[in-house]
Amino acid sequence: MRPDPDTVRGWLGEVPDPEIPAISVVDLGIVRDIGWEEDTLVVDVTPTYAGCPATLVIALDIETALRDRGIDKVEVRRRMSPPWSTDWISDEGRQKLLDYGIAPPQLNAANCAGMLSAQSAACPLCGSENTEAIAVRGSTPCKAQFRCRDCREPFDYFKAI
Amino acid sequence: MDPLVTFCLRMGDTTLILGQQTAAWCGHAPVLEEDIAFANMGLDLIGQTQLWYEIAAEAEGKGRTPDDLAFFRTERQFLNAQLVERPNVDFAHALMRQYLFDAWHLPMQEALCESGHEAIRDLAQKSVKEVRYHIDRSRDLIVRLGDGSEESRAKMQGALDALWPYADDLMATDEVEETLAAQGVLPGLDRVRAAFEAETAATMSRATLEIPGNGHARIGGRTGIHTETMGYILAEMQSIPRSFPDARW
Question: Which GO terms describe its molecular function (chain B) (predicted)?
């Protein structure tokens, strides 16, 4: 049995990100390529942050999910180039982040990445754009901490990179 | 040793030792946000180390893994700049060490984005995005604490006086860098020092801090000469793999 790449992509759409389980590895935009090399299913994955502890878990979760679908030989390969960008998060993924309470990253990351002061986020709880950054780092390397000046709630913002 | 291996170890050892030192703040920083920030930056740096060690190990061709390079080399075999092995002391020292490192690391990674060596170029294009956030944070805090209260300013000036002499070790070059520059692996190294000087001068001025007039002094880390603290760092970092060399997670 050799399911085509689109079918496999559909399956991987059910593999959650280990640290932000609201979105899948496909929503995150890190699954770069899926293909067969002889009897091995090869999945190319781009790491988010170089030191993200989720990277190893993601590879393991992908392998496990595909084995559960009856595929014996799976190889998850790391693809470094081009580097991952938050612009690759799907529209569906951005909506899921918002529903989960995380403000999605500003688009066109190349123009603002590395400078939190150049980024803004609407409050995922009340929608207000009257918000302020509290800290460049949040509960994971990919997030920053913000606060809403209207509803006063703190929230996570997924930094553009 | 192959200049490429030496250079990758110089880079990777520097990010590893700073990552290790930075991670030690986990649970100890003065406020929760900075605690998390230091821990997460340590992760970035250790992740970048892994990439440098992979390139070094492959070029070396002896079958060593990144873990072998991190845990089974001795002090004289570590080629990190001395700045990153300076002790944590207090938050001012940790932050100033981080900022001086970032002020060099960002232009260095930007230069490496143009490297003729594919794996190094890929590494740099990935890391540079992370490093921009690092300096965004450390610069902001240097300015806020330098141009802050009397006490915070005194602490930041003390840290700058103590650490500035070590900053030059980040930029020390010898025939290793010269060889790689001639091969196109290391483009634009001359711009790195100029960028470091412009960055630190502008930021220290905003922070109302004075760069010491006696200049940089200490070099040698990149040839394996270290300060007293280095042995303690390695002892702690390497103790478990050396006690249980075949242990697996």
Answer: phenylacetyl-CoA 1,2-epoxidase activity
Q: Which CATH class is domain A5-78?
A: alpha beta
Listed as ranges, residues in chain A with pLDDT below 70 are none
Q: What average pLDDT does this structure show over B66-82?
A: 97
Task: Locate B69 and state its tokens.
Answer: 């390079």
* CB contact at 8 A, B21 and B234: no
Please report, rounded to a whole number, the percentage of residues in chain B having pLDDT higher than 70: 99
Q: Dihedral (C-alpha) B55, A79, B186, B7: value to the nearest 10 degrees?
A: -20
E strand or H helix that includes residue B129: helix B118-146
Nearest CA-CA partner of A104 in A84, A126, A128, A120:
A120
pTM of the model: 0.93
Model confidence over A123-133: pLDDT tens digits? 999 999 999 99
The residues in B 106-165 lying below 8 A from A, measured between CB atoms, are: 119, 121-123, 125-127, 129-133, 135-137, 140
Any B CB within 8 A of A137 CB = yes
- Provide, as residue numbers in chain A, all residues whose Cβ is less than 8 Å from the Cβ of B140: 136
Query: Which domains can be identified in chain B, with CATH numbers?
Result: 3-212+222-243 (1.20.1260.10)
Helix residue ranges per DSSP H, chain A: 5-12, 54-68, 91-100
Are the C-beta atoms of A51 and B43 separated by less than 8 Å? yes
CA dist., res. B106 & res. B195, Å (int):
9
